[in-house]
Structures are given as C-alpha cells and as structure tokens.
Design a protein that fits this description.
With 387 residues, this protein is α+β, with helices and mostly antiparallel strands. Helices cover 61% and strands 10% of the residues. The protein folds into two domains: 166 residues, no CATH class; 132 residues, Heat Shock Protein 90, CATH 3.30.565.10. It has a five-stranded mixed beta sheet with strand order 2-4-5-7-6, covered by helices on one side. A two-stranded antiparallel ribbon has the order 1-3. The relative contact order is 0.08.
Length: 387
C-alpha cells in the first residue's frame, strides 16, 4: 500500500498573516507536490476502476481531494483551522478506503484512495510548524494507515511510515534552519543600519556638541570659581556622551543576554570610576537593564545629595551565584532617619528607582551610610535569575 502521508506544515505565522517571499516559494512547492499526488491517485483509480467495491465512492473522494487541493492553493495565509482540516481530510480518506475498496485488495497491499496525496499534509505541516509539527502530522497519517489495514502491518506499510516520518523531520528541520538564518540576517542588517546611523550621529556630535562641552570645561577651569564647577559638569557630560555614542546598538530581542559592563559604561566619567571584570558580564536582558537603571538612579542621588566634589566608584562583581553592582561615594552621607523622612515626603528615589527595580528581578539592595562618610549602595541579583 502506498501510505505516504500528506504533511502540510504552514510556516509559523500568526493566523491570517501573509507569508513572505521565501515562505511563498515553500508553499508553492507544497501545492505542486499536492497536485502531483492527486494526479498519481487519479491514475491509480482509473487503472483499478473495475476492481473497487464502489467506484462511484472513489470518484467522490477524488473530487473532494481535487476541490481541497484548489481551495488550499488559493489561501495566502495559513490559519490553524485550515491546517487542522488539511490533516483531517487525508486521514478521513484513508479510513474510508475499506468502504469503497475490497478487503482482498487491501490485504494484498493495494494503495489507499488518496495514495501519495496524503503525504502533502505532512509536508505542509512541516513547512507550517517545523519538525515537531511535521512529525505529528506523519504520526496521524501513519496511524490512519495502520487502522485501514486493521493493524496487519506489512513491510511495505512500515517502509511508507518511515518515509512519512523522514519527510516531516527533514523538511521541518530545513524550514527551521532557513527561517533562523533569515532572522539572523535581518538582525545583522538592522545592527549594521543602526551602527551606521550611530557613527553618523557620532560624527555630528563630535563636530558640534562635544567640542562645545570640551571648550566649556577648559574655559571653566581657566576662569575658576562657579565657572570651574560648570566646567566640571560639562566635562562629565562630555565623557558620558562619548561613551554613549561608542556603545553598540541594543539587541532586537528584549530577553536576549546583554553585557552589563557595556550598559554601565556610559555612566562613567569625570568623578565616576567604573571597575569590574575584564571581560563581559552577560545577563538576561531585563535583569541587566534593571541593574543599569538602578545604578543610574543611585548616581543621580549622589549628584543631588553627596555634595560638590564628591567622587563615586561603581564596582561590578561577577560571582558564582550572584552578580553585584556597588555604587560608593565619599560624599556627605545620609543622616539617620533621612530615608524614612524622604519617603514620607513622597521622594521615592531609593525605594522605587533602586530597590523596586532590583527586587522586581529577584535581587536585594543594601544601603550603608553615615554622616560625613559617604554612602554605599549594593545591588545583588541571584545568578539563576540572570540566565
């Protein structure tokens, strides 16, 4: 019996979405295979027309197969209901074979009525959902084949079942590799475009903003007094801006790993020293961004409350079980009760901007401070929440 299953795996597109050019080519090939399969089944039916129990029933099944072949080819999208019907039809036609054919022919290994046409469903499911979908469709069609012969599996039937499974696995895997390559190419193109735009902005900024900030810093130091403080602030912003334009573009996937050291790089500058491991500190995207944002909030607190001339150090610790970021300054420190008073007055910088962000990703925050001795904010995240 020719029990090669129909596998129509539409690509992993949302319901009613339109395939792109590559997927359209895959579906065109699938439709062509289905047409060839129907032609093969029709030729077999014509040659064996005098041997069927109910030739009219065979013609009705062939007509239904032809109608579905045309109907499916007209669809540009592949909603789930369409794929379910596409698999159910060949299964039903295989199970109807004992109704229209004789038991003697079935026992002798005659083709089922849909014959090769059944395999188009396996192919379609592999294109639609990859290996797993292709294997599921192959198993469904193979089960119908076994039921049609009442469990008397012959070597030919076993051979066809293996071919069905290979069709679902190989085509599904090839489609997954193709789509993964396409996504990686699109991401590479996006990164290249973002890098070019960043380089263009960096040139413009260097020719204008950075030169002005550098001039303000230099003149402020020459004039002294309040102008020196203004120059120092301009120098900090110049350093941050240079670091920002040198940072690579953010990843497209928000959950993709990011280098914490690269995210914290723009925060360093005049009066702010960043230290940590020599290599990257990769963390899951949300965790890395939470640590970077909380560190930025801690630096804002230093600028507002530590006093003029306060120096700040940012320390990254990549340990076996945890990743920690410590922000330490040598400023005025926090008087006892100041944090509670600030929260009562509605100033929630420490509790929300820092502690809230870190606790949201499963971490902890410890603040150590004393008047005149500076402040240390340690943010620690368990390793299992960063992978």
């Amino acid at each position: 019996m020719s029990r090669v299953a129909d596998g129509r795996a539409a690509d992993r597109l949302p319901p009613h979405s339109t395939p792109d050019r590559t997927d359209s080519g895959l579906w065109t090939a699938t439709n062509a295979f289905r047409t060839v399969g129907w032609t093969y089944a029709a030729v077999i039916a014509v040659l064996d027309r005098t041997e069927y129990r109910h030739p009219a029933g065979v013609l009705l099944i062939l007509a239904a197969m032809a109608a579905w072949t045309l109907f499916f080819a007209l669809f540009r999208s592949r909603p789930p209901w369409l794929m379910v019907v596409d698999l159910c039809l060949p299964v039903a036609f295989i199970l109807l074979t004992p109704v229209v054919d004789t038991s003697e022919r079935i026992q002798d290994g005659a083709h089922t009525v849909p014959a090769l046409w059944s395999a188009a469903a396996v192919l379609a499911w592999a294109v639609w959902g990859g290996r797993r979908a292709g294997i599921a469709a192959a198993c469904a069609v193979a089960a119908a084949d076994v039921l049609e012969i009442q469990g008397r599996v012959t070597p030919q039937t076993l051979y066809n079942i293996v071919l069905l499974l290979l069709l679902g696995v190989i085509v599904g895997y090839a489609v997954e590799v193709l789509r993964q390559g396409r996504r990686e190419l699109a991401a590479a193109i996006a990164v290249e475009a973002a890098t070019e735009e960043r380089e263009r902005l960096a040139r413009d900024i260097h020719d204008s903003v950075l030169q002005v900030l550098a001039y303000v810093q230099r003149r402020g130091a020459e004039i002294g007094g309040d102008a020196a403080a203004l120059g120092r602030l301009a120098g900090e912003q110049e350093a941050r801006l240079r670091s920002l334009v040198a940072t690579g573009p953010a990843p497209q996937d928000p959950d993709a790993e990011q280098d914490l050291r690269a995210l914290l790089g723009p925060l360093s500058g005049v009066g702010v020293t960043l230290t940590g491991p020599a290599g990257e500190v990769p963390l899951r995207g949300p965790v890395a961004r939470a640590l970077a944002q909380a560190t930025g909030a801690a630096l804002d607190n230093v600028h507002r409350h530590a006093g003029d001339g306060a120096r700040t150090w940012i320390l990254i610790e990549d340990e076996a079980d945890t990743v920690a970021v410590t922000v330490r300054d040598d400023g005025a420190g926090i008087p006892p009760g100041r944090q509670a008073q600030a929260e009562q007055n509605g100033r929630m910088g420490l509790s929300l901007s820092i502690r809230g962000r870190i606790e949201q990703v499963g971490g902890t925050v410890q603040v150590t401070s004393a008047p005149g001795e500076g402040t240390e904010v340690e943010m620690r995240v368990p390793r299992e929440n960063t992978r």
